[in-house]
Design a protein that fits this description.
This protein has a domain of about 170 residues: 3-Layer(aba) Sandwich (Rossmann fold). The chain is about 35% helix and about 10% strand. The longest helix has 23 residues. The radius of gyration is 18 Å and the shape is globular.
Length: about 250
């Protein structure tokens, strides 16, 4: 169900256990070869495919929110970003608009790595406000984590994780709209992921890691890989939403 298609009485008539799905992404630089709207385009396509499955009829989908937390990309012109605290409060308000009307299941579907930490913190803080209500289910999932590693089932992938303007994202844009990819992909150099002081966590901005603004191996991208990735991620996200619909109140 599309929130944008409904009048308010139709929303009011929905079961309060209907999962409300909030797709959230970004508008930010993706290297010299990819459009700044990459994250939102890709998440939009994954969501479009999920909406073609039966579970979509049991969820309420809010419009995709393209404004994300992308301050680590602002050295590159064209990036639009909300600061982490502003973004965190925005996410809380999204959920609260439904929680105050008694809806109990919120699912944020994320399409940008920089949103992960503020999104998790927003839901953690929100849960404190509803700590006595065991019926409230606050979830976040990043679409490329929904089904495990695609490298286990998609042949030919050179990357084992999502990068930035990388083999995976470039492949999906090639499948979605190849005219948005700039120049000869075969000539785009690989930018290694690096270790980043793992297993610890290092604060960084993109120029610390990449001069052109991408991370990974775009030259290995193909539209065929893109189709397989879309199918893999949409299947994983569909299964996750089915879990949200079927939640029995336990520690799933």
């Amino acid at each position: 169900m599309e929130l944008t298609d409904l009048a308010w009485p139709a929303v009011a008539a929905l079961p309060r256990t209907t999962p409300v799905v909030f797709p959230v992404a970004a508008l930010e630089q993706h290297g010299r070869h990819m459009p700044v709207f990459t994250d939102s385009l890709l998440l939009g396509e994954v969501i479009r495919r999920v909406k073609q499955t039966p579970v979509a009829g049991r969820c309420l989908f809010a419009p995709l929110q393209w404004f994300g937390n992308s301050h680590h990309h602002t050295d590159f012109p064209g990036t639009l970003s909300a600061s982490p605290r502003v973004y965190l409060e925005l996410l809380k308000d999204f959920a609260n608009n439904f929680l105050v009307h008694g809806f109990t299941r919120m699912v944020f579907v994320n399409g940008h790595g920089g949103n992960i930490v503020p999104l998790q913190q927003a839901l953690y803080e929100l849960k404190q406000d509803y700590r006595q209500n065991r019926d409230v289910l606050l979830l976040s999932i990043t679409y490329w984590d929904a089904a495990g590693s695609p490298g286990d089932v998609i042949p030919g992938l050179t990357q084992t994780q999502m990068g930035h303007g990388c083999e995976w994202e470039t492949s999906m844009i090639l499948r979605l709209n190849p005219s948005l990819v700039v120049g000869d992909i075969a000539a785009v150099p690989e930018v290694p992921f690096g270790k980043g002081f793992a297993p610890g966590s290092r604060a960084w901005v993109m120029p610390d890691r990449s001069e052109p603004g991408h991370i990974g191996n775009p030259s290995a991208a193909t539209p065929e890989k893109g189709e397989s990735l879309f199918e893999f991620f949409a299947t994983g996200l569909t299964g996750y939403l089915e879990r949200a619909v079927g939640w029995d109140g336990g520690w799933d």
